[in-house]
Amino acid sequence: MFQDRGYLVIDCLRPKVWADPAVLPCYAQNTLVYVRSDRIHLYQRLQLELERGLGGRLSAVHPALYQDLVDPSRCSFREALSFLYAVARIRLCARLGRASTNGRVSGNNRRRD
């Protein structure tokens, strides 16, 4: 979405806060810097970070947040069922060759035999 509007994402802060227990996992996971591509030359340090970060990135999901999703002792029964339903729906849609948008199976992608 941001790239379509001419912005570059620079993952220069997450490595500094990823394992810091003083930073909540949701902030550690979502702290990214966006710079307009036509302005990156004005920020040498960000340009260096962009070039340095091209080799690899941290995980998209913080381990603590992931544990909250997959560890049954950390969520309610209802949350666990909701998660299992979502995973099953995605797998079923993939197996049937249907696209899933916003949690709903798209009727436009049905096979016609």
Q: Give the radius of gyration.
A: 19 Å
Main sheet? 2 strands, antiparallel
Task: List SSEs in N-to-C order.
Answer: EHHEHHHEE
Helix count from the secondary structure assignment: 5
Structural shape: flat
Q: Name the helicity range.
A: 40-55%
Number of domains: 2
Characterization of this structure:
- The structure is a single chain.
- This protein is α+β, with helices and mostly antiparallel strands and 113 residues long.
- It folds into two domains: 3-60, no CATH class; 75-109.
- It has helices at residues 14-17, 25-30, 44-53, 63-70, 77-96; strands at residues 7-10, 33-36, 100-101, 104-105.
- Strand 3 (100-101) and strand 4 (104-105) form a beta hairpin.
- Mean pLDDT is 78; it is low at 103-113.
Give a short synopsis of this structure.
The chain has 113 residues and is of the alpha+beta class.
Element layout with pairings:
Layout: E1 7-10, H1 14-17, H2 25-30, E2 33-36, H3 44-53, H4 63-70, H5 77-96, E3 100-101, E4 104-105
Antiparallel strand pairs: 1-2, 3-4
Summary keywords:
113 residues, flat, 11% strand, alpha+beta, 4 strands, 2 domains
